[in-house]
Amino acid sequence: MSKYLVQRLVLSVPTVLGLTILIFFLLRTVIPIDAVDFAFASAEASDPKREQELREEFGLTGPLPVQYVRWLGRILSGDFGSSFFTGKSVTSELLHRIPTSVELGVGALTLSLFIAVPLGLMSAAKQDSLPDYAARGSAILFYAVPGFWVATLVLVFGSLWFNWAPPIKYRPLWEDPIANLRQVALPMLILGLSPIGTQIRLVRTQVLEVLRQDYVRTARAKGLGTREVYFRHVLRNSMLPIVTVVGLQLPGVVAGTVIFEQIFVLPGVGRYLLDSVQRLDLYVIMATNLFFGFLLVFANIVVDVSYAFIDPRIRLTSR
Q: Which of 98, 103, 260, 261 has a beta carbon 3.0–4.6 Å from 270's, enabling a disulfide?
């Protein structure tokens, strides 16, 4: 297990390196102007000397490959640069904001699993019945309804009908857990609606497939109860595709917090990215995109390693 984990970590290095190349050169070539041009565009008079000084200060001079190597060297030392507009370290800002986005994304996926797995099991157990149709219809509804639209409706009608609004001042989980949960519980639930739709249908499909296997018929023939058959034999053997999908949903859900952090005024990475895009804050844009890409690579590693814990028939060894 440890040898396989080391191999996966080593193989992820070229992936992350390729990700840095893609992010840097795409952003430096697709965006026609940089933050220095953007800042001086709103000024009444340009100052070419000052613009050149700022570009040298922020490492925007020289050929693009030289700029990339310079930026990569700073990243390897833990320095993602500084914001062009606030002057604050991007690294410190990310460390401050990552827990909020991860809490929101992981919480949304956790809630979705607690809702989707029982509904999927019930739907499979009562195939082609009214509960099955209700669960499948709910899955389609959850997947189809845009989360930002639901969030907007909740805020608008909550204010009009109940004189309610979510707290604006954010309190971190480690400072005030109760106040934190009051603020993030609702966006967690709304953010988890789309994953719920996917997971219900996936759980139902996988459970129905396992129910047709010979060992399930044998377990029932031996006199095992329905509950024991489902939880001891069916559910565990249905988990591999579910874990794969959930693991790959995590980066997308965390990246999807951009809208919800803006709507519910949460100081996360998504809101940080949105603000930086509006101001063309280059180093912030690159660092936040690299974070989301690294999260996807990390999720893939966790999914691969978790297979051995779910299914003992799988051995994570190299041949």
A: 261
